[in-house]
């Protein structure tokens, strides 16, 4: 006989929970999520949130001890950030409410970033500032030293670690064959009155050539890898090709070839929107679900 993981009473042979207890638990988790989002995103009853969470938890077999409560409040803050992402824009009111919530409960950045939500909040906060043309320094150069030699007239906006760099490479091979029939003119001697015809064939594909750190500033894209380091002025980029997991660019040079930076989906969306905001263009939305990923094109022929 097994005991219910929620109420602790007998659940029956080879069973670990009562359906009613499991349903109450799930309903309680959803209720806590809702009250946390309302408090964090809209400032609803922030000071009374702990009591409301404990009340819901008591009826839904949810741990509301001091340690568990901190984790629950941090998770609720992250869920509020996800809710704010629905329109891909963080308003000043939402930002202030989120800051009040984490300040009221003294939630640290490490607590809030266990699932990447604090990083996402910082991303949205930067986009909000750029939309209002607030290009104040985002990094203290004395505290954060990027692996790039930045110009004095530009500001570092963001660093992306673990970025894969792809570039178009061209391979050539000679293809052809001989024509004609061999004739015997003497013992062991043959002639072939034909011709050899061939042609040079070039194939192009996207190849992963390096991995490293990508930086975006108010004027350039920087890349520092193990074997390649370069910067590209934003105004010298002819076109951008967004992917769900990366960004492709084409430089304004006579011998330019496609280049692609691959990163996480959120990072790729964020990078494109930062570039868009810096260049004072209209807002860019996420590529549609059917948009290609880099796996669809890398190592494939571009002919």
Please explain how this structure is put together.
This protein has a seven-stranded antiparallel sheet with strand order 8-7-6-3-11-10-9, covered by helices on one side. The protein has a two-stranded antiparallel ribbon with strand order 1-2. Strands 4-5 form a two-stranded antiparallel ribbon. The protein is flat. It contains seven helices and eleven strands. The C terminus is likely disordered. With 303 residues, the protein is an alpha+beta fold.
Provide a short characterization of the protein structure.
Helix content is 33%, strand content 29%.
Task: Compute the number of helices.
Answer: 7
Oligomer: single chain
**Main sheet: which strands, in order across?**
8-7-6-3-11-10-9
**From the alpha-carbon coordinates, what is the Rg to the nearest angstrom?**
29 Å
Would you tell me the overall average pLDDT? 84
Strand residue percentage: 25-35%
What is the approximate shape? flat
Distance between the termini: 66 Å
Order of helices and strands: EEHHHHHHEEEEEEEEEH
Class derived from helix and strand content = alpha+beta
Low-pLDDT sequence parts = 281-289, 299-303
Summarize the biggest pleated sheet.
7 strands, antiparallel
Number of strands: 11
Residues in helix, %: 25-40%
